[in-house]
Amino acid sequence: MADDPHKKILVIKLGALGDIVLALGPFAAIRQHHPDANITLLTTPTFEKFLEPSGYFDEIWTDSRPALWQVPTWLALKARLRTGGFTRVYDMQTSDRSGWYFRLFGAQQRPEWSGIAQGCSHPHANPDRDFMHSIERQDEQLAMAGISSMPAADLSWATSDIAGFGLEKRFVLLVPGGAPHRLTKRWPADCYAELARNLADQGTQPVILGSDSEAPLAQEIVSSCQSTIDLCGQTDLADIASLARQAAGAVGNDTGPIHMMAAVGCPTVVLFSAASDPALTAPRGTEVEVLRRDNLTELSVEAVAAALRLR
Predict the structure, then answer these.
(1) pLDDT at 79 over 60
(2) What backbone torsions phi and psi does residue 89 show, to the nearest 5 degrees?
(3) Is the pTM of this model over 0.85?
(4) Which of 37, 188, 217, 286 shows a CA-CA span of 20 to 30 A to 90?
(5) What are the domain boundaries of the chain?
């Protein structure tokens, strides 16, 4: 846009991995709408290195999300925001915290603001926004700020060399973990173990992804199916995207890595319990199958295996 008055723009997105993946389309849309602007992302340290190659941002600032009592940190953030020279902010977090950041600018220096902060210039004025899927909610928010073209998530820039993992040519990714404080979002480990045995019997190598803290869970599955490969704690975010591009399929709970697998086009089965609503947060991709049971212990291995359509 040759006549774009905005030369310095701030985008705020502090969420977890799944939220970041669901915001990739909006990130791309903002860059396309402001091709000549200097765009800064304010995010958490986890995503700084991951998003650097995306091309969506000229700078990435990290936010430690200070507690209210951490006054020096708040003052430093306030100074940084006020001296950033931003003329527009896209608040893709739309939380109480990012609402406080709106106030930190002060009434005299406050830039144009797309979000839900009271008094902002470009509010997402839909009282039902909390009942919309993240993709449609963000699309509508940006449309109300003048950005009408919204691409799908693109992770083509997230690449790595996965040869060192020594995997077989045909493998399926399993994501049996998830947030440790929301265990009801997990399908039982013994179900993953049975699924792993079924895959191995069909000549497909099961590969488990997760964090270091989920290694005991992975080992429980490996002990039941010796051909399973445990990569817990060994992959970064670019590795997950690269593995998903090569995998025959993926099965996982409603957690961040499964969003990445779906977004790169891997045939993905995602399992939901009553603890979360796929209508609001389901992964998006070209080959995504959602299975839901209020209690995931009631979801059979046969049902999951039937839903998994390997390529």
Answers:
(1) yes
(2) -125, 130
(3) yes
(4) 286
(5) 8-144, 170-307
